[in-house]
Amino acid sequence: MTTPRTTYVTTTIPYVNSRPHLGFALELVQADVLARHRRHRGDKVRFLTGTDDNSLKNVLAAEAEGVPVQDLVDRNADAFAALRAPLALSFDDFIRTSRDPRHRVGVERLWRRCADSGDLYRRHYEGLYCVGCEQFYTPAELVGGRCAEHGTEPRPVAEENWFFRLSRYAGHLHELISSGRLRVEPAVRRNEVLALIESGLHDFSVSRSGTRARGWGIPVPDDPEQVVYVWWDALGNYVTSLGYGTDDPAYDQWWTGADRRSHLLGKGVVRFHAVYWPAMLLSAGLPLPTDILVHDYLTVDGSKISKSSGTTVDPAELVAEFGTDAVRWWLLREVPRVGDADFTRERLVARANADLAGGLGNLVNRVVTMVHRFRDGRVPGRGTVAEGAVADGAGGEGAGGEGAAAEGTERLVAVCRDVAGHVDDALADFDFRRATAAVWRVVQEADRCIDGTRPWELAKAERAGDRAAGERLDGVLAALVGACRTLADQLGPFLPESAAQVAAQCAATDGRLPTARPLFARVGAE
């Protein structure tokens, strides 16, 4: 895998008609892992998230509460930004489309560039509009007369709007996606987009009347009676946050000049990101994203997590109850690359207790305790069979080493040596479950190593005068400490807080490891 030099990672920006839910937390955590992983591999990374403030959904929610729209938007946007601490997020930028001075000027510039290309025109339109999707549908696109995404009946709307000539770009988009120049993952979503294009693309409305929008949103340049369609407005955040429309050099560095421009999004908005947005960029003469990375949904009792439906789980409350790493670990270990995942607290508790408390925490405690018990806290070093067996750095530099691995540690040393490559491959495929499974093989192999080599029996034989048993014990302990250090290194993008704790537990001070202490308390009740 060729390591890119500059990586720009983004999430979608959610409507702020209510507080955040666990479904969006999934996307935030996935993006955070990609950003941390690429930083760890030496990339320059910019990680962007934010909120979509200019939606009609936000206006209607404010009306229902009887509060000013800006007040509702500010309150809920603050709740999204506040997920940084409980979810241990490392985003570099957070854009708010109603407040950020970078945004409006960039949206206006993007609009004018598409207008200059001849791709914007105004005409009367009548159609069925789903407020939940902020999108017009044809009757053929509905299921039993209802929006497939929200299960609601779209409202009939008739007005004069600006339209974008999407149909002009059908052939170009098909070639970009089918060739892989615009990568859409996983393949099931790529095929879905290609089928959509092949069925025929129709020009779409890119403005709303100011009256229907209640005056909320960005006015269309040179047509103040119209408001820029919320999706046009929102999609622009990926470049407006970089100063597109100003002289900010960040745009050239992170958009024009980036090696990878990766958008993470849910399957319900693939059309907007893999069709509308690339067509807008082609019209404006701007570079396209390189990767459209699509996740499926979380469900609760089989129903999609959704603010509008009331089926929701508050991620901040979940972290307060179970801890940051328990929540992150469930999202990364349980959610498949393709297919929805059903969330329950029982599943989260079971995974945290089995993997974190009973797996990782127990392993580190056992290893550190044995080093103290058998070697007074000092990790065996050079001059023993362990030379070269201590995994260190990304993937365990020297895990194979110049010397031979101690008898019984060969498989563990090999797993430590290879884990970085497996993680790289899995994350390149946008497969977090496979990536975490690759890391977890180190825990499993370390446990097998302990069971197979039985260090306590080697120590007993050494005390009885068996020098070879003592040398082998040195090698086993060194390999086990090396495995724990490899875990600390490779878990960093997934569980940053726990990885730091493991690293501290396995770091020698004045030649000795700290006294073993529990890293994880069991959570909840299984």
Characterise the protein shown here.
This protein has 526 residues and is α/β, with parallel strands linked by helices. It folds into 2 domains: 329 residues, Rossmann fold, CATH 3.40.50.620; 162 residues, Isoleucyl-tRNA Synthetase, Domain 1 (Orthogonal Bundle). The chain is 47% helix and 14% strand. The strands form 4 sheets. A 6-stranded parallel β-sheet has the order 3-2-1-12-13-7, sandwiched between helices. It has a 4-stranded antiparallel β-sheet with strand order 5-4-6-8, with helices on one face. A hairpin with a 2-residue loop joins strand 14 and strand 15. The two termini are 41 Å apart.
How are the SSEs ordered, and which strands pair?
Blueprint: E1 6-10, H1 22-40, E2 44-51, H2 56-65, H3 69-81, E3 93-96, H4 101-116, E4 120-130, E5 135-137, E6 155-164, H5 170-179, E7 183-185, H6 187-198, E8 204-205, E9 207-209, E10 219-220, E11 223-228, H7 230-235, H8 237-240, H9 250-256, E12 260-266, H10 270-284, E13 291-295, E14 298-300, E15 303-304, H11 315-322, H12 324-334, E16 341-342, H13 345-375, H14 410-428, H15 432-453, H16 455-463, H17 467-490, H18 496-505
Parallel strand pairs: 1-2, 1-12, 2-3, 7-13, 12-13, 14-16
Antiparallel strand pairs: 4-5, 4-6, 6-8, 9-11, 10-11, 14-15
